[in-house]
Amino acid sequence: MSDQLSQIINKLKSNANPKNIEGMARFGINYKNTLGVSMPIVRKMAKQIGKNHSLAIKLWNTKIHEARILASLVAEPLKFTEKQAEKWVSEFDSWDVCDQCCLNLLHKTRYAFEKAVSWSKRNEEFVKRAGFALMAVLAVHAKVVKDNDFCDFFDCILNQSTDERNFVKKAVNWALRQIGKRNSTLKKKSLNVAQKILELNSKTARWIATDAIKELKNKTFK
Asked: Which CATH code is given to the segment(s) 111-222?
């Protein structure tokens, strides 16, 4: 282990908080290899480190929960290859690491839209969640993308809306809501998709659709 990596891991361990681990577990966060370091501390460390792609890969490979989130913050999107993305997503074991990687890194890659679709069709719980989480994040942050690119996500959302796994169904719902909140045109299209989901014979689908419809109907645009 390099000196820099050792120093970072030691700093993470020095900020470990067992009480935080208990709280994380209550929110369904996997506590395996977790130190309980708060996100403000992790983000402060990321700012101090700056972008460092080779270090990000090393941090990820430690398998430490907070080190992996830190890795997503210091990795460089333009250097992050599809092979690396596939490796990381296959190793997701907690919804927060999944979502942080989508928020901090994956939506900035050149292949983000492609992976959002392909991952949403995979069976592994956190890979599938990554696909829909990525759709949601892109809907917020991909400012100059055309509406049609987001319409490509609707079939995925409809087709996977009966998946009963908690971390999947919440991500499907998240994606539908965020796309609909992008503008008035996508709001109308999202509500149409929500209505189709509502008609499926599935308790999970009804929850996804009902929750999305409730939020989107209250969303107004200038």
From this structure: 1.25.10.10
| pTM strictly above 0.90 | yes
Residue for token pair 């120093």: 7
DSSP string, the chain: --HHHHHHHHHHHHT--HHHHHHHHHTT---TT-----HHHHHHHHHHH---HHHHHHHHHT--HHHHHHHHHHS-GGG--HHHHHHHHHT--SHHHHHHHHHHTGGGSTTHHHHHHHHHTS-SHHHHHHHHHHHHHHHHH-TT--HHHHHTTHHHHHHTTT---HHHHHHHHHHHHHHHTT-HHHHHHHHHHHHHHHTSS-HHHHHHHHHHHHHHHT----
Rg of the chain on CA atoms, in Å: 18
Tens of pLDDT, residue by residue over 121-163, are 999 999 999 999 999 999 999 999 999 999 999 999 999 999 9
Query: Which amino acid, 166?
Result: N
Longest dimension (CA), the chain: 58
Q: Classify residue 109 by its DSSP letter.
A: S
pLDDT in tens, 72-82: 999 999 999 99
Domain residue ranges in the chain: 1-92, 111-222
Q: Are 64 and 91 in contact (CB under 8 A)?
A: no
